[in-house]
Prior knowledge:
Blueprint: H1 6-15, E1 32-33, H2 45-61, H3 65-68, H4 74-85, E2 93-95, H5 99-113, E3 119-123, H6 128-140, E4 144-148, E5 161-167, H7 179-188, E6 192-196, E7 215-218, E8 233-236, H8 238-241, H9 280-296, H10 298-319, E9 326-327, E10 339-343, H11 347-356, E11 359-360, E12 362-364, E13 368-372, H12 380-396
Parallel strand pairs: 1-11, 3-4, 3-5, 5-6, 6-7
Antiparallel strand pairs: 2-8, 7-8, 9-10, 10-13, 12-13
Bound molecules: pyridoxal-5'-phosphate (PLP).
Amino acid sequence: MVPSSRDECLVLDARDALAAWRARFDLTDGLVYLDGNSLGALPRGAGEALEKVVGVEWGRGLVRSWNEAGWMEAPTRIGDKIGSLVGAAPGQVLVCDSTSVNLFKGVNLALDLRPGRRTILTEAGNFPTDRYIAAGVTRLRDAHVESVDRAALAEAFGDETALLYLTHVDFTTGEVHDMAALTAAAHEAGALVLWDLSHSAGAVEVALDGCGVDLAVGCGYKYLNGGPGAPAYLYVAERLQDHAHTPIPGWMGHEDPFAFAPDYAPARSMRRFLAGTPPIVALATLEVAVDMWCECGAAPAAAKSRALTSLFIELVDARLGGWDIEVASPRDAEKRGAQVALRAEHGYALMRALIERGVIGDFRPPDMMRFGFPALYTRHVDAWDAVETLRDVLDTEVWRDPRYAERLPVT
Ligand SMILES: *Cc1c(COP(=O)(O)O)cnc(C)c1O
């Protein structure tokens, strides 16, 4: 039964086993925040962690903190925690750099590991940075990108395919690829896979080891709530690590950085994929958020996000029927990430009007309004309020105000 009142949604919240997590985030009362798929909310513990890392570890400990405050181990320590959320055994995930830089590493590793093959197979709708990085790699070495429609991927492998290169959960529609099947198809064709998990970790269940994945990357500031520009992560399956050489062989990936040896020798562990000095202050807030995720667990969160996105879609169907608004995300919850995209001709102006009324989602060209439902802090009543506010914006036609059509630099 689709709820027919706000009160019914409040009842769903009262019964929600994860409802208490919301209090551990610093969210403004009355705000309906549905953009955690772009920038996750602020964990209350983040301020305290910053005071500690800045005031105590940096301020008092100074350089001694590299040894005494666990700074050196932070990239692998936090990496292992993220690994536990995406089905990776310890020793295979490293927190470092941005997603873009880790994509660059991953594409190069795959091409090195498949000598004689030069094709990077991807889908036309892959996230822009993923596309740009692959194209950038082809300007540096003998490789080329083959970009096909999603439906044609399984048939597109050839003798030249070195790498299947995909984002697991689509950044606009939230459609989920079948990681197990596509990884198996890539291996069958003699290729490796690299999955971008930016919209997966904290949103859906992932089994990297279970699917036999080779390489993966992901982002720290979306569903993981690590903070704006939080470091990203890289997964390299253990079986490949000894044979894989980073294209950015910086001193922190050396087997003994403080020997200051004249020549590079890679660490015999995941650390070999580090480039430079880890961003300790940024890692502190990421770790607070990742610890919360580890406490909650990926499976219950994914189940709650599925319930919330299903509720939102049902409410859109039930209450926005007269308007030209189309659900662009899969209707099968198992095939959907933790976000819903609505296609609307004037989606940009509609979203600007929604944001001004305290419902924050975002917009992706040409016509997609995106609404994210991160499990730890989003409520059933948020889905209700978002749909009712959208109904009001449509009914009153306030979105026609020309100022809503003016593009902002970040939306
Ligand atoms: C957000 C996102 C990124 C982010 O890349 P950065 O280098 O961390 O800015 C990369 N890939 C996908 C699919 C994303 O959604």
